[in-house]
Design a protein that fits this description.
The complex is a heterodimer of chains A (348) and B (275). With 348 residues, chain A is an alpha+beta fold. Chain A contains nine helices and 20 strands. Chain A has two domains: 224 residues, P-loop containing nucleotide triphosphate hydrolases (Rossmann fold); 116 residues, RNA polymerase II/Efflux pump adaptor protein, barrel-sandwich hybrid domain (OB fold (Dihydrolipoamide Acetyltransferase, E2P)), CATH 2.40.50.100. Chain B starts with a helix and ends with a helix. Classes of the chains: A alpha+beta (348), B mainly alpha (275). At the A-B interface, strand 6 and helix 2 of A face helix 9 and helix 10 of B.
């Protein structure tokens, strides 16, 4: 549905470099990245608001690289929504219809879809953040675009409204079968809506795939850190294990088993939620079990983040139930278990 | 009560700050009113009756009014596209063009009159316009409009540019994705959003044109019943010793200007009251 081929764009010292991306029809795609990564610029290139330096953009098998924004069949919701302050909610939603010379009958239908019919006579200035977001979405959807581009659509909303709006976005996207590109820097937001995602950094696309792959099999240290993998270590290969399927590596004087065959020096990671923490000494200490000291803990709502000081520092996310067993073990020994299956070697 | 609820809790330093700001407002307003009142008390009933019954003075009032309105409309006709172009487009010589817009503001007013006179009487192009095209400006009512336009249009253009600068381009971008051409996004988004700034520029332009004196004396003179406007009438009356009449005309000019400027704000609704 959307194919970006070798897109390059330069503004000041920043450059979007040879970006290739394909998004399937009806897919909800999230473009992730830190601020300044080039996400908005890429979205504006897709819209035609920025003219690409090189490369081609295809939408629905049509080359739209040289087409004006109004002929690309795109619905666009910019960051902070950019609702026209001199128009009412109804006039904002009807804006695109009038620009195309259509009648306003679809305004009510679209307002109903988003549950904002009661707002139609209101001015923009008096709307809440969530209401503005819905109006901006209605304005983009009223023309029945094939593609919806959302630039940080919920970043200005509070946590509860953000969850509600994300659920609504996904429901509408599924109902209308819209191919959607959603730009965000927020992982929770991405997990609540994305079929697939990509991570952009310094104008370069780092990795594309389902979120669980980006989470568990990142292809670089940057992606791993962006996906909040805090346990990233460099190690030196010391040999193979007896079964010849795992590799033995040494980190801070400790031998660990990691899956696959590797050589030389490498970087590996284990996600905090995959680190098992037992009250020590554990009776069944197996492979990759380390003695450590629990030095800090923080209740993060759904889980407890614990910091362990052992041969090397580790962060683990454990359940409240698991933490309850450790609570009297503060500043005392625990066993941290790094299951070899959960260890991921970062491609070097 | 609503305004009070919207005001943050203030300490004594904030009150002192507000009081100082308000003091400056008061001093300026009182000073201007005292000056006007000094004129009011100086003018006697006879002078007022002379002004109101003189067909030449009423003609000068009419000339001042229509020429200043026409020159303001022409200035706005230039100001809107020019303000938009200077705000939105970058082209070779952009900075020079921007500076040239301000030149007539910097000129001493007399220089505008002299420059126009030299252009139309001493250059081949000027003479061609006057003699071959038949567009006579020197010592003609048309010259009043041209003089006012040259002296005052910069205010309209500068205000329009600032107003367009203040319109976030994202609004125009969204309009483009919603089916507008660039003209459509200008007409339906940028222009309405810049409206207040453009009107503010129009008020400044009109005020400058309405009270213009020096360049008119040089370029069109002050012929009774032909090119005489209120500002030149004031000069002529005071130069022959009719100070009371001159001040009565000045009060008439101030009164008309006050009515017009206040009227525009009120007619424009709450948003223009903020101008």
């Amino acid at each position: 549905m959307i194919r970006a081929e070798n897109i390059s764009f330069r503004v000041g010292t920043f450059r979007l470099q040879g970006l290739n991306l394909e998004i399937a029809k009806g897919e909800y795609f999230v473009l992730l990245g830190p601020p300044g990564a080039g996400k908005t610029i890429f979205l504006e290139c897709l819209c035609g608001l920025k003219k690409v330096e090189s490369g081609r953009i295809h939408i629905d098998r049509r080359d739209v690289t040289g087409l004006e924004p109004r002929t690309r069949g795109i619905g666009y919701v910019p960051q902070d929504y950019a609702l026209f302050p001199h128009l009412s909610v109804e006039q904002n939603i009807a804006f695109g219809l009038r620009a195309h010379g259509y009648s306003d009958v679809k305004v009510d239908e679209t307002a109903d879809l988003l549950g904002i019919r009661r707002l139609l006579s209101r001015r923009i200035g008096g709307l809440s953040g969530g209401e503005k977001q819905r109006v901006a979405l209605a304005r983009a959807l009223v023309l029945k675009p094939k593609i919806l581009l959302l630039d940080e659509p919920v970043c200005a909303l509070d946590e509860v409204t953000r969850q509600e709006v994300c659920a609504q976005l996904l429901a509408i996207q599924r109902r209308l079968g819209l191919t959607t590109v959603h730009v965000s820097h927020n992982l929770e937001e991405a997990f609540s809506v994305a079929d697939r995602a990509a991570i952009l950094h310094d104008g370069i696309l780092q990795q594309v795939g389902p979120l669980n792959i980006l989470l568990r099999k990142p292809n670089s240290e940057f992606v791993a850190r962006f996906m909040r993998s805090e346990n990233i270590f460099s190690a030196e290969v010391t040999g193979k294990d007896a079964g010849d399927t795992d590799t033995l590596v040494r980190v801070a004087g400790v031998d660990l088993h990691i899956p696959g065959r590797h050589g030389g020096k490498l970087l590996f990671m284990i996600r905090p939620e995959d680190v098992l923490v037992h009250p020590g000494p554990h009776p069944a200490v197996g492979q990759n079990a380390l003695r450590a000291r629990l030095v800090r803990s923080r209740d993060c709502g759904g889980y407890v983040r614990v910091e362990l000081d052992g041969p090397f520092n580790l962060v683990a996310h454990i359940t409240h139930a698991a933490f309850a067993q450790l609570e009297h073990k503060h500043e005392s020994d625990v066993i941290a278990e790094l299951s070899p299956e959960s260890v991921h070697v970062l491609p070097g | 009560m609503k305004a009070a609820m919207n005001t943050p809790v203030r300490g004594w330093r904030d009150r002192v700050f507000s009081a100082v700001a308000f003091l400056f407002v008061s001093v300026f307003i009182v000073f201007v009113l005292v000056l006007i009142l000094a004129d009011v008390f100086y003018v006697d009933r006879k002078a007022v009756m002379t002004v109101l019954s003189s067909k030449f003075i009423l003609h000068a009032l009419w000339m001042s009014t229509w020429t200043s309105v026409l020159s303001t409309l022409i200035a706005l006709l230039f100001a809107v596209p020019m303000g938009y172009a200077l705000s939105r487009f970058r082209f070779p010589g952009h900075i020079l063009a921007d500076a040239v817009v301000d030149l007539p503001i910097v000129f001493p007013p007399l220089v505008v009159g002299l420059t126009l006179l030299v252009f139309f009487s001493q250059t081949a192009l000027g003479r061609w316009i006057q003699e071959d095209l038949g567009l006579e400006f020197v010592f003609q009512p048309k010259g009043i409009v041209l003089c006012q336009f040259v002296a005052a249009a910069s205010f309209a253009i500068r205000s329009a540019k600032t107003a367009f600068d203040d319109v976030d381009r994202r609004y125009e971008h969204v309009a483009l994705t919603l089916g507008c051409t660039q003209w459509g996004s200008f007409r339906r988004v940028s222009l309405p959003l810049a409206r207040n700034g453009i009107i503010a520029g129009g008020i400044l332009t009109w005020a400058r044109a309405f009270g213009l004196f020096g360049p008119l004396m040089i370029f069109v003179g002050s012929f009774r019943g032909r090119t005489e406007v209120l500002s030149t009438t004031i000069f002529l009356e005071q130069s022959v010793g009719n100070l009371e009449v001159a001040l009565a005309i000045a009060l008439l000019l101030i009164f008309v200007a006050l009515i017009a400027v206040t009227g525009i704000r009120l007619a424009g609704g709450s948003t223009l009251v903020k101008l």
